[in-house]
Design a protein that fits this description.
Layout: E1 5-10, H1 17-20, H2 23-26, E2 33-36, E3 39-46, E4 49-58, E5 65-70, H3 76-89, H4 96-103, H5 110-113, H6 127-136, H7 142-156, E6 158-162, E7 165-169, H8 173-178, H9 181-186, H10 191-205, H11 211-216, H12 219-227, H13 234-243, H14 256-266, H15 275-283, H16 289-306
Antiparallel strand pairs: 1-5, 2-3, 3-4, 4-5, 6-7
Helix pairs in contact: 6-10, 6-13, 12-13, 14-16
Length: 311
C-alpha cells in the first residue's frame, strides 16, 4: 500500500489564500479546482496517473504555510510535479514584497495595498486549461464562460474519487480533439469556439503545438505562435503570458475590464485610452505590470461593491 505524500511549502512574502483563490468560484463552478474555506482540492495528471491532492493554508498572512497531501504517491517525480502546480495555483513565484515597495509610490496602486494585502495572481495549472478557458471567455461574460467550461470538464474530463469528495481531472488533448462540433454546441459553445478548442487540441496531439515549450519561450514567440492559430488573437496571447507563463512585464491592454480600470484612474472624463496608451502607462511598473493589473482589476471590484454594484 502506497502511503500519501505530505509536503509543507513556505511562502516568501504575504499570502491571502482566500483572496488569491477566489477566481475559482467567483464566477461559477470549477469542477477541476475545488476551494472550500482554506482548503483546495485538485487532481494532478502525471502521465497516465491521476493523483488527487489537497492543500491547506495555515498561519498568519505574513507567515503562511501550505500543507499538501497527495493521496497516492511516493516518488520524487510526484513531489516535484505537485509542488510546481501548487506554487502556480497560489502565485508563489510573484515578488509581492517588491511590488508593494513600488506600489506605495504610485497614486493609483498605493490605496489598494492595504485592502488587498496578500492577494497574488493565481496561474492556470496547465497551458491547455488556460487556452480552453480563454476561448470560452471570448466575447461573453465570465459567468457564462465558467458554465460552459464546467460542462466541458464534466463531459470529457475524468471523475476521480478523493477523500474530500469527487474531483474532475481536466480532459486530455486527445479527448477534446476527437469530439464533434455538435457535441461542443450541446455544451453551449458556439460553432467557432468549438472549432478553436478542437484545433488547439488537435495541434497539440499531432505535435504542431508544444504547450510545454511555449511556456518557456520568449514572449514575442509566444505571441507569434498563439496569434497564428485560428481564433486566437493578441488578447489571448497577453492573458496566456500573464496568467499561464506568469511573466511580470505583461499587460493585457486589449481586455475591456483592463481598459476600464485604466480609464478609471487616468483618462479624462468621457475619454477613452488606446491600447498603446495603456501599454505605455503599464511599462512604468516594469516587472510588476502583471501584479499591478491584477490589483487594479480587484480594486475595480472593490469600487463596484462599495457603490452597491456587482463585485
Amino acid at each position: 500500500m502506497i502511503r500519501p505524500i505530505k509536503l509543507t511549502l513556505a511562502v516568501d512574502g504575504p499570502l491571502d489564500a482566500a483572496a488569491t483563490l477566489a477566481r475559482y468560484h467567483r464566477w461559477g463552478e470549477d469542477p477541476t479546482t475545488r476551494v472550500d474555506g482554506n482548503v483546495l482540492r485538485r487532481v494532478l495528471r502525471l502521465g497516465e496517473r491521476l493523483l488527487p491532492y489537497e492543500v491547506q493554508a495555515a498561519g498568519p498572512m505574513d507567515d503562511v504555510r501550505l500543507s499538501v497531501t497527495v493521496a497516492d504517491g511516493g516518488s520524487a517525480d510526484v513531489e516535484r510535479a505537485v509542488t510546481t502546480e501548487v506554487r502556480r495555483l497560489y502565485g508563489l513565484d510573484f515578488d509581492l514584497v517588491g511590488f508593494y515597495r513600488m506600489a506605495k509610490a504610485d497614486p493609483a496602486l498605493a490605496p489598494l495595498v492595504e485592502p488587498l494585502y496578500g492577494m497574488r495572481p493565481t496561474l492556470a495549472p496547465t497551458p491547455l486549461e488556460m487556452l480552453v478557458g480563454s476561448i470560452s471567455a471570448q466575447q461573453v461574460n465570465l459567468s457564462f464562460a465558467f458554465a460552459c467550461r464546467a460542462r466541458l470538464v464534466r463531459r470529457w474530463g475524468t471523475p476521480v474519487t478523493a477523500p474530500g469528495g469527487e474531483l474532475w481531472a481536466f480532459p486530455t488533448p486527445a479527448r477534446l480533439a476527437a469530439a464533434r462540433l455538435r457535441e461542443y454546441r450541446a455544451l453551449k459553445f458556439s460553432t467557432r469556439k468549438g472549432e478553436y478548442i478542437r484545433d488547439v487540441a488537435r495541434a497539440t496531439v499531432r505535435g504542431a503545438l508544444d504547450l510545454d515549450a511555449l511556456m518557456v519561450a520568449p514572449s514575442v514567440d509566444v505571441i507569434a505562435t498563439l496569434t497564428a492559430l485560428r481564433g486566437l488573437g493578441r488578447w489571448t496571447a497577453d492573458w496566456f503570458l500573464a496568467r499561464c507563463c506568469g511573466r511580470g512585464d505583461v499587460c493585457p491592454a486589449g481586455d475591456l475590464a483592463v481598459r476600464k480600470a485604466f480609464e478609471h484612474h487616468w483618462a479624462r472624463r468621457g475619454r477613452t485610452l488606446s491600447e498603446e496608451a495603456i501599454r505605455r502607462r503599464s511599462r512604468t511598473w516594469g516587472e510588476h505590470q502583471n501584479v499591478a493589473v491584477h490589483y487594479l482589476l480587484a480594486g475595480m471590484r472593490l469600487h463596484a461593491a462599495a457603490r452597491g454594484g456587482e463585485a
